[in-house]
Amino acid sequence: MGIGKEVSAADGRGAVSGRGAAASPIEFRLDAGSGVPTYLQLVQQVEHAMRLGYLKPGDQLPKVRDVVAALAINPNTVLKAYRDLEIKGLAAGRPGQGTFVQATLSQVALPELTALRRSLSGWLTAADGAGLDEDGIVALFTSALRDFYERRSGSRARGGAASDGTEGVA
Amino acid sequence: MNVVETRGLGKRYRSTWALRECTLAIPAGRVAALVGPNGAGKTTLLNLAVGLAAPSEGEVTVLGGRPAGSPAALDGIAFVAQDTPMYKNLSAADMLHLTRNLNRRFDQHYAEARLADLGIPLKRKAGKLSGGQQAQLALTLALARHPRLLLLDEPVAMLDPIARHDFMATVLTAMADDGVSVLLSSHVLAELERVADYLIVLSRGRVQVAGEVDDLLASHRVLTGPAAEAATCAGRRAVHLRRGEVQAHLLVRSAADDPVPVGWEAHPVGLEELVLAYLREPGASEPRELAALRKAEPSEVTK
Which of A8, A30, A37 sits opposite B179 (nearest CB)? Predict the structure, then answer.
């Protein structure tokens, strides 16, 4: 009986890492109105946190039991999310300890991210000054982003994932 | 292992059938939700599984074949009835004492620690506790027996949002800690998606749909298109139709890679929308071939 067994395994993880181990750097939240399945919301929040540098390789994801207690969701849902992250190669389970981040999704360090955010803020101010509202800004940005990647993938030979690691995360 | 298994189960009160031809196999390790309108047979099914009522026909077993109501079955299950009935004049401590002495197994340490966590004073009479605290006390008494199967009849219907959240958090944490399986009846559809991974829709005493939530969502979708073609498009796979003058929405049984009729759009369906559609169509039930097909697939991961 696979899933039940995994639930008890999660208990083992929780019990051991509960003693003295550092807590996870992140907390999950749920948006009931988003229409996104619960497990996918957890996956996306981990990826988002990795992209923004909140989660680094070696960091522990919240323990299954803690997520269940905080959000009142089915433990199988958390296990499904963590399994999904493991399949994507982003996280790995360590028996008796928990699930840990093992890859990196943020290509730049936090200081550079801050600088980029600042220059983007400047651009946003200009767009606002030119009379664009929020929807207009999003539309313009999305379209420019698509153009940028289309032009770039057009200039390269199409051959799956780029190997130099500078490719944007799909 | 199946935590609840029924075959041709029925219960008649005088001339009225409360439950009829109910055949189910609820796998372990799940939170199974029993949904349906009032009088659909939810409480009857729970009472039969617990052994509080005897079947008029068919049979019901729990925890891998133990006859419902037998000592072996009772040893492994705990039941919290609707509105969490309690001896109002007994204190929380008395309730613990009583439950410990009425059961073969009772984890006094767990129960006391849990009540301390919840801030429920041991000396307070059960009748003086808030609705949320009474529900938590009843749940604590049930969980302190460390059951393998926990049955809950409308556990959160009377609770405010915070008490409801905390109650479900306690249930689900016990599941994460102990691996206890859960079967609960509920009216609160909005919360099902977060809580349940197995679903049983009951209507007028019969099982309309039963299965893993993921499978049910994957095998249904909503088609949107011209109302004039709705009848031809629907065929016999339609569960529910909503139509305006021009446009119609059809909930149909179909796999995600089935071709979409020309001029129609397909959307995935949410759990609440799916349940509502079935509840609005008491006549619709899952065709047997589909249920059989799903059963043929390995439903459990074996390692």
Answer: A8
